[in-house]
Amino acid sequence: MEKLGEMKRRIEEVSIVPLHDNAPDAADALLGTVIPDRRDGRQAMQLREMEIEQGLLKHADGSARVLMGRTVVTAAVFGPMECLVRLQQIEGTFVSVSFRLPSTSSLATHDPHHLRDEPGCQPLHGNHATQCLSRTQEVELGHLLGSLIRKELYPRTAVHVGIHLHHDDGSVLSCAINAAVLALLDAGLEMHAVGAAASVAWVDGTLLVDPDLTESNRASGLLTLCTAPKTTQTISTSTTEHSADLIFCDVRGGQFFNQESENLITGRGSPFSVARNACNIIWGIMRASVRRKEALLEAWYDVAKGKEGSGIGGVVD
Amino acid sequence: MNAAVLRKLHPREFLSTLREHGIRSDGRTHDELRPVSIVMSPLGCGLGSAMARFGRTKMLAVVTGTVVVPKVQQPTRGFVDVQVELPPMCSALRFRPGRVSSEAAYLASWIQGLVASAALPVDVDALCIKPGSLVWSLLISICCVEFDGNGEDCAFFASYAALRDTRLPEIQPPDSHEKLATASPMRDKTVHAVDHQVAYPVTFACFDGGETLIDPTCFESDHSCSSLTILIDGKGQSRGVYKPGGAALSESTLKDCEALAVAKRKQLEHSMEIASREGPVT
User: Fold this and answer.
1) What is the ipTM score, two decimals?
2) CB under 8 Å to A41, separation ≥6 — which residues?
3) What count of CB pairs under 8 Å joins A to B?
4) Architecture of B27-278 per CATH?
5) Radius of gyration of chain B from Cα atoms?
6) Domain ranges in chain A?
7) How far apart are CA B106 and CA B85, in angstroms?
8) Is cis: bond before B11, omega within 30 of 0?
9) Are A101 and A164 in contact (CB under 8 A)?
10) Of all helices (H) and strands (E), which one includes residue B273?
11) Where does the signal peptide begin and end (chain B) (predicted)?
12) pLDDT on residue B62
């Protein structure tokens, strides 16, 4: 019985993936240029440390918390659940997203860039309560997650995804997408593909992957990309081959190039291909995290059933 | 069964059958725009107005302005806000009266983002009348008169043409007798950028199998798998890609769409030129 209790505890704490040793070399080789160091010591193509926690909210069907550097986003999935009759769809489920800023988040108290002034985003109850971050991003995320889920398996139901931003340190939208996708996986909803999202910013003539807040504010262009790799091999071997499908793309600011550099989409060092590489790396991280959790759950199940020789050791992929 | 019944009962099959034959329900090919017409100053109100038509989708944009006190940190910058209305008159089945629908909020936020990111550049420093005390705050109100798909492009062209049509008048503050005009030397133009800096959007509806239809109608975009908007500037470079979710798109489809969008920009430029040459409607 102690084994069971210990394993239960381990499942809850171990879905956090340690510091990821992502490989900037492949992407650097693409550009072949010398890249200046960033404020936090990263290379231009280097992602921040990413932490993933799944299943943290007990009352939600699925939940996940993603930390990319200091950006913290929590997502909770409720569903498939009963849907209002006027919103019911015969052929699939109705996906709704709420993208909110809880009153405890840092942005609620200190908002120098007036991000909270968008119309339709006033606080729900009172001045300091939770408020909607962006109606349009809610709509976009709804479309995105709706295309990832196999909607036709859950007709006339609703799936609600609630996303809360706890701390904004850049790359919020990609962090939110990753959290939502992991929460959907945690809820056990069947999906067509697992999408991973990454952001790329163009600051002072260089492309920076996974920008933090100061870099995003100085950026003249910000691209958020979500792709779903088709291959089932390890992603690090397929950086040159574009086998990923584009699911979501959002560009803020249009100044992605100076006079002589390449186009936004095509070209070896273009923002799209750089973002795609970053998405592939993040996809690998997400996959590893889900695998670890699966393996632990399997082992726990074996222990619970009292199987001989079952345990944690040697089960992880 | 005949075509009308098929269209009603099995719209996706109807559309895919048409696509196999290379035509669309209004007789266009997959890479043809609807007839585009842009008219400046159709209304006498406001500082500037324009109406853009993409086939049956018609949007009317009016620019109004008030004089306000600028922000302390930016004493010479004016403001530009965008508001989009999709009333039931434009499509009674889709839009109900009452609070702002999410499509309208999305369009407003999208156009606002284009203005902020200089895809639709407005020289906010030219809106300054007296640094530190008086600046113009412009509001672009876009009202959809009839909605038949491709709201994004139509709203963009309506607001772009309305901005080009805007003339900022001189104002007389109550405490002085002199009349003040905006600080900029080119005071009769609000959109300072030359046309080639403006990024024109081109919208596609994407279907299974990587087929895309440019400038989709309502019927086509309702039954599409996803939508894609590409912004192209005057030099043929893509300045932005918007794909708000929907089915996955392969890279080759994206490149084809980009190439087509570059080709279509010429046609849209031509329409804008005709509009600005013809001048106000009397």
Assistant:
1) 0.78
2) none
3) 105
4) 2-Layer Sandwich (3.30)
5) 20
6) 41-102+134-230+243-305
7) 11
8) no
9) yes
10) helix B251-278
11) none
12) 93
User: How many Å lie between the alpha carbon of A146 and the closest alpha carbon of chain B?
Assistant: 7
Q: Are the CB atoms for A248 and A140 separated by under 8 Å?
A: yes
The C-alpha atoms of residue A49 and residue A22 are separated, in whole angstroms, by 9
Q: Which two tokens stand for residue B254?
A: 């994206």
Residue of B nearest to A134 (CA): B109
pLDDT computed for residue B141 by the predictor: 93
Question: How far is Cα B49 from Cα B166, in angstroms, rounded to an integer?
Answer: 7
The position carrying tokens 């609600």 is A160
Average pLDDT, chain B: 83
What mean pLDDT do residues A126-130 have? 49
CB distance B250–A145 less than 8 Å? no
Q: Give the pLDDT of residue B154.
A: 94
For the entire predicted model, the pTM comes to: 0.79
Name the most confidently modeled range: A69-73, A86-90, B101-105: A69-73
| Model pLDDT, residue A180 | 95
Q: Touching check for A251 and chain B: CB below 8 Å?
A: yes
Secondary structure (3-state) at B197 = helix
Q: Which residues pair with A36 in a beta bridge?
A: none
Closest CA to A281 of A68, A40, A34, A41: A68
Residues β-bridged to residue B134: B130
Name every residue whose Cβ is closer than 8 Å to that of residue A27 and which is 6 or more positions away in sequence: A45, A209, A239, A274, A277, A278
In this structure, the number of other CB atoms found within 10 A of the CB of residue A179 comes to: 29
CA distance A192 to chain B (A): 10
Place of tokens 């492009």: B153
Lowest mean pLDDT among A181-185, A236-240, B8-12, B208-212: A236-240
The domain made up of A41-102+134-230+243-305 is a member of CATH 3.40.50.1360? no
Across A80-88, average pLDDT: 90
